[in-house]
Amino acid sequence: MNHETNRQTSAGRSFIGCLLGAFLALTLLLLLLCGGAYFAYRTINSFENRRDQLCVRSEVEVEQARLEYSPGFDYIIWSKFTVRADSMDEVFDPSRVDPAEFREGFEINIPGMMNPWWDVEDHELSGAEFQVSEDEFMRVGYVDNGDGTFTVYIYLFEV
Fold this sequence. Notes:
Strand order of the largest sheet: 1-2-6-5-4-3
Number of strands: 6
Number of helices: 2
Shape: elongated
Structural class: alpha+beta
Strand content: 25-35%
Number of domains: 1
Helix content: 25-40%
Distance between the termini: 78 Å
Order of helices and strands: HHEEEEEE
């Protein structure tokens, strides 16, 4: 009888050990998946990873960069950032964005953007729309902050 009890106790411990091992393995898998999803989200929504697509010169120092990417058949990118520059000529790649086309009273009326940082309605913008690639258009609006900086709003969309 003592031998039978030891066998049952060993089987119970083995079962608990298997459950604990499975729990730890699933926890590790969940952490890896969440970490991968977070990394992918941060990469997709990274301004620096999208700088060239947004036609912003690499040497321009960007502050307070915000970006949201909306995937889909026709993706959308919203971005807002601040730059220190004497003029908008210094900010964008001139082969794709011509600052001479900027005009006062430009509006970026975009439905669906709900982030509080996308506050274009609160400002009188200057700007224009550009075709920046075969299938991408970009609306650029900006505010001269009067202190040597510009706040720039970009709405890039694929067609």
